[in-house]
Amino acid sequence: MFKDIRVNWSLLLQIFWTFFKIGPVTFGGGYAVIPVIEQVVVTRRRWMNMQETGDVLALGQSIPGSVAVNAATIIGYKVARIPGAIAAIIGIILPTFLIVIGLGIAFLQIQDQPKIAAAFKAIKATIVALIAFAGYKIARAAVVDKTTLGTVLTAILIIAAFDLNPLYIIIGGAAAGIVQVRIKDMLGLTVKLEQEHADAAGYIDYYI
Known about the structure:
Number of strands: 0
Structural class: mainly alpha
Oligomer: single chain
């Protein structure tokens, strides 16, 4: 079963090191890491294009678990199959694991200090900005025509009006996409599934 799996240790080390450096910015449940993954995977490493990365991030948010870990697993698998997925998982989890242990020990000693509480408030505000920017970047790849824009706006209205489980929104979005493509095919309209031009934004080297 595993005879056909060839291990490229240099590539695995590259995958591990890439996600090891991404791991420390997985604040806010992992959503803040989306801009970093997009920049590294698409612009620097060129492991995927913008459309593929958008699909991976959408899938990572659609399944249980942290979006950062899910996305890393899928990307690692695409680049180097099962060994690549394992390298990506270890790489993105290990720094967080070490940081949490260190902060847990330190936090017990300094948790009552006002400066620490103020610092955490600032961190939360920064995470909001990162998540908003991540949403903007994904929207540029996902909203390809008026139909997909309508789907986004409809989903926002439903989320705002009803207290629904996110799973229902995801399933509803998938069903809406299938129906929209079917209707367009029946009417003989062009079905546009991705942007015509790749994102040419420059690479921002956060520290990676």
